[in-house]
Structures are given as C-alpha cells and as structure tokens.
Design goal:
It holds the Pfam family Sigma70_r4_2. One of its GO terms (biological process) is DNA-templated transcription initiation. Keywords: DNA-binding, Sigma factor, Transcription, Transcription regulation. This protein is an all-alpha fold. It is 71% helix and 0% strand. 24% of the residues are buried.
C-alpha cells in the first residue's frame, strides 16, 4: 500500500472503525486510543498490505487491538470497589435505546462483537469471519445466540413503551 492509499484508507474507514470500537467499550477516549493504535500498526506494515484488503486488515487489527485492551483492563481496579450507595439514583424511565445498550453489555464479548459487526456495521458473515478469525458457521451461531439473548432480555416491546 502506498502512502496515498494509506491516507485514503484512513479517510475512508476511520469513522467506521471508531464506531465499531466505541460500541464495544463505550468509552470515547479509549476508543480513540484504540483507533490510533490500529492505524499505527497498519502504518508499520503498510508496505506489506494490499490496498484491496485494507478495510479487512484495518478491522481485523482494530478487533485484535480492542481485545488486547479489554484483557489489559481486567487487571485494573474497578468501580465495584467503590461505595455504590454514593452513585445510586431512584429515578426510573424507559428508554428502549438505553435498554438495548444494557442488553448488549450483558453479552459475551464474541457474541457482542459479531452482532455489532453484522447489525450496526452491516458486514456479511464471511467478512465477520475474516475479521474475528472465527469460522462462518461459528459467526452465525454467535449471532443467533446473541439475538436470542437480546430478545429474551428486552422482552415484548409493548412492555417497554
């Protein structure tokens, strides 16, 4: 990939990668860092990458960088150690979008990633399999199980509204 092609791929795919990462970790600063790390890794190998495969390579790299970041954060202190009574509120309301995001957070990481790639980013099963290094049938199984969980978690839409 030439420098011009690299710059074109940055312009073309950076927003999509950012949205994908942000949907997974829901932290804008960390998402920006992961996107930056992704493009840095791609830049280091840009001479070995074909421009035709740049999109797939970028999403694969972003996915693996995201997983590394999540694993690294497992060893950091969490908010669960803090006094929860200070942060509790009694206000209740029904926001379908918020409930959907809460449901997504309950999914295992693999299911969450494939659902986000399929339903939010619009990738087909084969592309998701390439990005996540899973088989196409495993991608389909994860999507099915994730959607079943979301359906059961959210319940009937009439109840929410």
């Amino acid at each position: 990939m030439t420098v011009k092609e690299y710059n074109k791929s940055v312009e073309s795919y950076s927003d999509n990668i950012y949205r994908f990462v942000l949907k997974n970790i829901r932290d804008t600063d960390r998402a920006k860092d992961i996107v930056q790390d992704t493009f840095e890794k791609v830049w280091k190998n840009h001479a070995d990458i074909s421009y035709a495969k740049a999109k797939s390579y970028l999403f694969s790299t972003a996915y693996h960088t995201l997983i590394d970041s999540i694993r690294r954060d497992k060893y950091k202190a969490s908010w669960e150690d803090a006094d929860a009574n200070k942060y509790v509120t009694n206000e209740t309301y029904s926001d379908v979008n918020e409930i959907l995001h809460q449901a997504l957070e309950q999914l295992p990481p693999d299911q969450k990633n494939v659902i986000l790639l399929r339903d939010y980013e619009g990738y087909n099963y084969n592309e998701i399999a390439e990005i996540t290094n899973l088989s196409e049938s495993q991608v389909k199984v994860y999507i099915f199980r994730g959607r079943q969980f979301l359906k059961n978690y959210i319940g009937k839409i009439e109840v929410l509204v």
